């Protein structure tokens, strides 16, 4: 372990921790794409686990191994050979199969560590379920279930189920986070939710357990009576519809897993061809009842858009088939995610992708224009050209940004656009006349597309689009109801399956509440009767006393915080003033630092000044800002000390190196070496704050005064510092969580 971390045997714990953090950042699999990065990272973690524990470190220094019983066993081994040199046992006799050095190599590729679980497995559980085994050394029951586990893991992995193994001896943090207090334990993970397996470990039970993890409405049973209704829902759901024809009476697990993985893009139906009542359906589409057949239906339900047949449907074959048919021919833009997938940002001149957008309305009035556009799209769709449509009344901001001329009012229009960046900037060209679907319109559009191949400058207009509304998102009340049902289900399951260790906190809380309740009743019942005979003060006197007390405390608090200037002085934190403004800051003083970038500097400084202005009267507070573009590494080093081991966020950032820390605020206590952290609110969390552009007091001036903007992007950035003033209140009260660090890092 000393060699792995690159430290000496006399190194202090601070040096070991510093070396570990440096190597962990360098070899983290999310940052280092080297094929051996993951193995190296595991070695670093195991080395730090030994050297950070004084007992294990002492065992290693003394016996060359970190095991708790190694000292005794090696001493006995030497003593045995000393007194009984003529007596010999074959050492292989003592190598039990559950020893850590003789673990089954089949589990090695499934081993999980905490960061890998948090950053990759949990986000991936929204696409496929995971079956995870918790094991350890010297576990007899683990040996017993190993043959069944091998067979089931191999079978389910081929179907698309994720497999994981957690070694509780090396990954105690992860095992504790998962709630596994004994080994072996088996659990399922889906949509970030953990469910424990409580039945006998046999193949049928494990398959049924994985199947029960999946939602029950993924695949609809289709017959002659409902197939037209099912296929006609493509317009309402804005998805292609998939039909699988097979002779199995129950839906295969492979098909359910596929439906879960593609549920955001496709709707799935299953036809049991051996069932009476499916003859018309089989005849309609000329189905071979002896061969499994999968069909994709898009805008036309009378004929499939694509078909695949195979006697043995494999996962790879199905994935290739579905990934090529995830969208309708002319999909409707119903949310920002769909817009980004269909119209991606160009990465180079050779990878230009253009979108032809039909801006239209709902109803029979616009049906003819839509059908003509669909016909044109079928004949001209290419890899570099996507056709989509949008309803003007459902996405008014999108339509208003592209159609500024009143001549398009109440009519359909066609726009060719290209996304330039992820911030919403596009280049576009609108057809000069409204789209009616005539032959002349078709010729004009075809001519423009031909010119676009050779002249990208044809898209001469530019604008910035706001994010699209999510038209298909469920209402807040429905989302709240689903959350409540999930919570009740979890509580019900925990009530019957939790062990005593898990139930102790709940029982302790319950008995404490009962004790306080009955204790209060008993104290009141046996209190001195003379207390009750004492006349209480009159209501008027009591009110006056309370008012006087509150006024006194309020005036005292207010006087200590009255701003002494008509502006907020905010200094940039650089390597020049770093020591004076932080490292050597006087005891009792704190520096409140705003994190910003060059692009957000003006807007964030204005909002920051407004939020902290009322606290500038405090002589112990200093205000600064830090450039994220210059000092990202310094900030990420500090934030490592603020990570929480237990909670996992609902959404995960796939671009680890491009995290947006703008809007973060740190209150740094240089003398005591700790900081408090303010994380910005997501845009749109507070409904009323995004609707209007905030007006700033003319008496407030910052060094970064710039032009005020009412653009959606400006409102979104300002909203990051929403409720910062409440956070400042808690900072002065001393009720915020503090994150301590060994020493302040250098600000290069």
UniProtKB/TrEMBL annotation:
Record carries keyword Glycoprotein: yes
Gene it is expressed from: Dnajc16
Xref: Pfam families: DnaJ, Thioredoxin
Gene3D superfamilies noted in UniProt: DnaJ domain, Glutaredoxin
Residue stretches making up the J domain: 1-64
GO biological process: autophagy
Residue ranges of every copy of the Thioredoxin domain listed in the record: 89-215
The protein's name: DnaJ homolog subfamily C member 16
Location relative to the cell: Endoplasmic reticulum membrane
Family annotation (InterPro entries): DnaJ_C16_autophagy_reg (IPR052448), DnaJ_domain (IPR001623), DnaJ_domain_CS (IPR018253), DNAJC16_TRX (IPR043361), J_dom_sf (IPR036869), Thioredoxin-like_sf (IPR036249), Thioredoxin_domain (IPR013766)
GO cellular component, one term: endoplasmic reticulum membrane
């Amino acid at each position: 372990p000393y060699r792995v971390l690159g430290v000496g045997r006399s190194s202090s714990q601070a040096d070991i921790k510093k070396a570990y953090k440096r190597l962990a950042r360098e070899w983290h699999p999310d940052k280092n794409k080297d094929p051996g990065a993951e193995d190296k990272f595991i070695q670093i973690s195991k080395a730090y686990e030994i050297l950070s524990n004084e007992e294990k470190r002492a065992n290693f220094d003394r016996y060359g191994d970190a095991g708790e019983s190694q000292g005794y066993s090696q001493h006995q081994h030497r003593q045995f050979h000393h007194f009984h040199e003529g007596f010999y046992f074959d050492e292989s006799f003592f190598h039990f199969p559950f020893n850590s050095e003789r673990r089954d190599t089949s589990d090695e590729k499934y081993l999980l560590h905490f960061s890998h679980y948090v950053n990759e497995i949990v986000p991936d559980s929204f696409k496929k379920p995971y079956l995870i085994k918790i094991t350890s050394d010297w576990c007899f029951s683990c040996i017993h279930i190993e043959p069944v586990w091998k067979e089931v893991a191999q079978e389910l992995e081929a179907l698309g189920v994720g497999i994981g193994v957690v070694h509780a001896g090396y990954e105690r943090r992860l095992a504790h986070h998962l709630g596994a207090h004994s080994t072996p334990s088996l659990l399922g993970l889906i949509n970030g939710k953990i469910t424990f397996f409580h039945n006998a470990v046999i193949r049928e039970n494990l398959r049924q357990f994985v199947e029960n993890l999946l939602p029950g409405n993924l695949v609809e049973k289709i017959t002659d009576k409902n197939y037209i209704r099912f296929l006609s829902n493509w317009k309402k759901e804005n998805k292609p519809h998939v039909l699988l024809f097979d002779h199995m009476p129950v839906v295969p697990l492979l098909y359910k897993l596929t439906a879960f993985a593609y549920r955001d893009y496709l709707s799935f139906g299953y036809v049991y061809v051996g069932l009476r009542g499916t003859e018309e359906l089989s005849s309609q589409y000329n189905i071979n009842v002896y061969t499994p057949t999968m069909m994709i239906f898009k805008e036309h339900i009378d004929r499939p858009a694509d078909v695949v047949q195979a006697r043995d449907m494999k996962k790879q074959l199905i994935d290739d088939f579905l990934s090529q048919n995830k969208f309708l021919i002319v999909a409707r833009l119903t949310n920002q995610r769909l817009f980004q997938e269909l119209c991606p940002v160009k990465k180079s001149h050779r990878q230009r992708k253009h979108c032809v957008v039909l801006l239209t309305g709902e109803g029979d009035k616009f049906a003819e224009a839509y059908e003509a556009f669909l016909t044109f799209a079928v004949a001209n769709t290419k890899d570099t050209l996507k056709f989509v449509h949008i309803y003007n009344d459902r996405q008014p901001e999108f339509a208003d940004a592209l159609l500024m001329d009143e001549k398009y009012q109440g009519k359909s229009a066609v726009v060719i656009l290209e996304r330039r960046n992820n911030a919403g900037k596009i280049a576009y060209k609108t057809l000069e006349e409204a789209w009616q679907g005539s032959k002349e319109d078709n010729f004009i559009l075809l001519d423009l597309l031909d010119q676009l191949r050779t002249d990208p400058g044809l898209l001469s207009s530019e604008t910035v689009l706001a994010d699209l509304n999510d038209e298909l998102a469920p209402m807040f009340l429905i989302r709240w109801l689903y959350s409540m049902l999930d919570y009740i289900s979890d509580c019900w399951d925990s009530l019957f399956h939790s062990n005593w260790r898990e139930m102790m906190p709940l029982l302790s809380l319950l008995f404490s509440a009962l004790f306080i309740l009955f204790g209060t009743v008993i104290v009141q019942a046996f209190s001195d009767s003379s207390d009750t005979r004492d006349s209480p003060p009159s209501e008027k006197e009591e009110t006056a006393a309370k008012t006087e007390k509150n006024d006194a405390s309020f005036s005292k608090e207010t006087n200590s915080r009255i701003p002494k200037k008509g502006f907020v002085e905010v200094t940039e934190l650089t390597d020049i003033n770093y020591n004076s403004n932080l490292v050597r800051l006087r005891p009792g003083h704190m520096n409140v630092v705003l994190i910003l970038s060059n692009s957000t500097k003006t807007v964030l400084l204005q909002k920051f000044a407004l939020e902290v202005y009322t606290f500038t009267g405090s002589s112990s507070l200093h205000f600064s800002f830090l450039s994220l573009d210059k000092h990202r590494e310094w900030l990420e080093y500090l934030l490592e000390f603020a990570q929480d081991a237990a909670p996992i966020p609902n959404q995960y950032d796939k671009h680890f190196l491009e995290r947006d820390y703008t809007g973060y605020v740190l209150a740094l206590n240089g003398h005591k070496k700790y900081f408090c952290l303010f994380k910005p609110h997501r845009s749109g969390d507070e409904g009323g704050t995004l609707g209007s552009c905030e007006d700033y007091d003319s008496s407030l001036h910052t060094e970064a005064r710039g032009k005020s903007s009412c653009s959606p992007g400006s409102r979104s950035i300002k909203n990051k510092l929403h409720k910062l003033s409440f956070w400042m209140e808690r900072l002065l009260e001393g009720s915020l969580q503090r994150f301590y660090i060994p020493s302040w890092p250098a600000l290069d």
